[in-house]
Specification:
The chain has 451 residues and is mostly helical. Helix content is 65%, strand content 1%. It has a two-stranded antiparallel ribbon. It is globular.
Length: 451
């Protein structure tokens, strides 16, 4: 095989697809267990007054068990803790005395980081209402164990790290003022932790509602109802996405090779991403938002009512789009998170598109909400809704480009993947050829990081 042909190979994914499969099987098994709880209790003669296990603690338990199964598979089967990318050399264990000073500095940085994030939670009013209340309760329960366990964990890890003076150490060194520290490393530390703090609270907060809907659903009542069946499958797929996505945000651990290598350094990337999440999304895309696209609209169930065959067909199409969206999260295994570089994923739906989740999500909105059809019979409403959904699509395109710029900057493997997808991607290759015809000198986006 020629060197040119070798360079055109799809690069191997940094994450095995089996990690996601293990998580998916574990999660579905727990959902089945939660739905069957009254029957299990009846079989063993236990009281079961509380019915199915659909409460917020059950949702949290599902996430924990799913995460443990994925972590166990990663370590026991795939031996990810031995990957050079972990930055760990298990054969070289330093004495505790040799790393204690480094560990104390790192703990100072870590604890100060948690204190600042906790203060931001207290200042943010949205964290004390709605779904976020459950997230704040979980974080409140976890904070003391986190502080206690961080001491042996940090010391244990510093003994085997190739370079224990990581981002966290540099922030701690800045605080204690005893040693030279690197401002760029401090920035990297805060980018990673702000991402983790912001999105972890959001993800934990939305665990219970979807989980409860799936566990409590009466499947027998909706099997003959295409709309009800479609909605249940949407819920199930979103539960898969949220549960495994939450695992990704929480298990940013170096021994799992799932640590955050870097947070997105581009200001545009942060703006584009945050516009899509609370509280910012409410001001732009929520009810009464600047670019809300659902004025005087109905959804697919309304417009196709009375046509059962079409309802089933459309439900199947929307379920497929949602499945692609969930599959994109499952493919990350324990490394899913926004705005971060944690390795390069080239398997699963990323074999066909660089941004399968965004593509599926935006297509779903067009096909589900049909903003160009309005109940007011107003052409102006139809035009406004269409234009504003196009604006939402543009935000996601903007997100995709800034994410590409971040990964192109970080990893040669992603540049290989980017080039391969330009030629072979199911969608991107065709778009790239059209763009190259219009602009033959086009190069991959490589903007400078924002300071």
């Amino acid at each position: 095989m020629s060197a040119h042909e070798q360079t055109r190979r799809l690069p191997a994914s940094d994450v095995s697809p089996w990690v996601g499969v293990v998580g998916l099987v574990t999660l579905l098994s727990f959902i089945l267990f939660a739905r069957s709880w009254p029957d299990i209790c009846a079989y063993f003669g236990w009281p079961h007054d509380r019915g199915r296990l659909s409460g917020p603690h059950a949702a949290l338990t599902a996430m924990v068990i799913t995460g443990l199964a994925m972590a166990a598979w990663s370590v026991l089967v795939e031996k990810v803790h031995r990957n050079p990318s972990t930055g760990i050399d298990w054969s070289r264990r330093r004495p505790v005395a040799d790393v204690l000073d480094i560990s104390i500095t790192k703990l100072a940085g870590l604890w100060a980081t948690w204190f600042v994030i906790g203060a931001l939670y207290m200042l943010g009013r949205w964290y004390w209402e709605g779904n976020y209340l459950f997230a704040m309760q979980v974080i409140g329960w976890a904070i003391v164990p986190m502080f206690v366990l961080s001491v042996p964990y940090v010391i244990w890890l510093d003994r085997v790290m190739v370079n224990p003076k990581d981002h966290c150490w540099h922030f701690g060194a800045m605080l204690v003022g005893r040693e030279e520290w690197d401002g760029e490393q401090v920035k990297k530390h805060w980018r990673g932790w702000l991402i983790k703090g912001f999105f972890s609270a959001f993800m934990i907060g939305i665990l219970p509602p979807g989980f409860a809907a799936v566990v409590e659903a009466d499947a027998s009542a909706i099997l003959g109802d295409p709309v009800g069946l479609g909605v249940l499958l949407f819920e199930l797929l979103f539960v898969i996405d949220v549960q495994i996505g939450t695992v990704g945000y929480l298990l940013t651990l170096r021994p799992l090779d799932a640590h955050i290598r870097s947070g997105n350094p581009f200001l545009a990337g942060w703006v584009a991403a945050l516009l899509c999440y609370p509280p910012f999304v409410y001001a732009f895309m929520g009810e009464g938002g600047v670019i809300q696209y659902e004025y005087n609209t109905a959804d697919w169930a309304y417009w196709f009512s009375g046509y059962p065959a079409l309802l089933y067909l459309w439900a199947a199409w929307l379920v497929l789009l949602t499945a692609i969206y969930a599959w994109a999260t499952v493919a990350f295994g324990i490394r899913f998170s926004n705005l971060t570089y944690r390795g390069v994923i080239t398997s699963g739906p990323y074999r066909f598109s660089r941004h399968p989740a965004y593509l599926a999500k935006n297509t779903f909105w067009w096909c589900c909400y049909m903003p160009f059809l309005v109940t007011s019979d107003s052409m102006l409403d139809a035009v406004r809704n269409t234009v504003f959904l196009l604006a939402v699509n543009a935000i996601y395109y903007w997100r995709a480009r800034t994410e590409e710029a971040h990964l192109l900057l970080e990893d040669p493997k992603y540049r290989e993947y980017y080039d391969w997808m330009e030629e072979h991607g199911a969608i991107t290759s065709r778009l790239a050829k059209l763009v190259r015809r219009a602009n033959p000198r086009r190069q991959p986006p490589m903007p400078e990081p924002a300071e």
